[in-house]
Design goal:
- By secondary structure, this protein is mostly beta strands.
- Helices cover 7% and strands 55% of the residues.
- It is globular.
- The termini are far apart.
Length: 139
């Protein structure tokens, strides 16, 4: 089972107060696609897609799909920090049982116009990443 394809807690990085958080939350809405890389001797890459929307509270939330692993789920915001949003991703579709049960994802904007999202997956309570990605906005 691939560790980095499971339930995810995510953090979308941004500095600022409530107004800035709302502006950033809106700026990341839309479709994002990229390659996830798992480090180590058996390093693998696989494609993922996230569709980010604002929930009824104005916080970012997403549906995600790990295309080559045939896994899908949702990201639900559970809090934010000075420079990040934190989400829980729950895998809701995993017919091949290839997704891990729970992970933490930290993401931060990259590029001059925040045209990318840098993503870092960790296990809950750990700091060492089990996977990383840079997602790019869908055309």
């Amino acid at each position: 089972m691939r560790i980095a394809t499971g339930l995810i807690l995510a953090a979308l990085t941004w500095a600022g107060g409530a107004a800035a958080q709302g502006e950033y939350a809106g700026a990341v809405t839309g479709g994002w696609t990229g390659l996830v890389s798992e480090p180590g001797p058996d390093a693998v890459e696989y494609r993922m897609h996230a569709e980010i929307v604002l929930d009824r509270d104005g916080s970012p939330a997403a549906t995600v799909r790990y295309e080559s692993l045939n896994c899908a789920g949702t990201w639900t915001a559970i809090g934010n920090f000075a420079t990040s949003w934190r989400f829980r991703e729950e895998i809701t579709d995993d017919p091949g049982a290839r997704c891990a049960p729970e992970l933490v994802v930290e993401t931060s904007p990259v590029g001059l116009n925040d045209e990318g999202l840098s993503v870092r997956w960790t296990e809950p309570g750990r700091d060492e990443p089990v996977a990383t990605a840079v997602l790019h906005r869908d055309p």
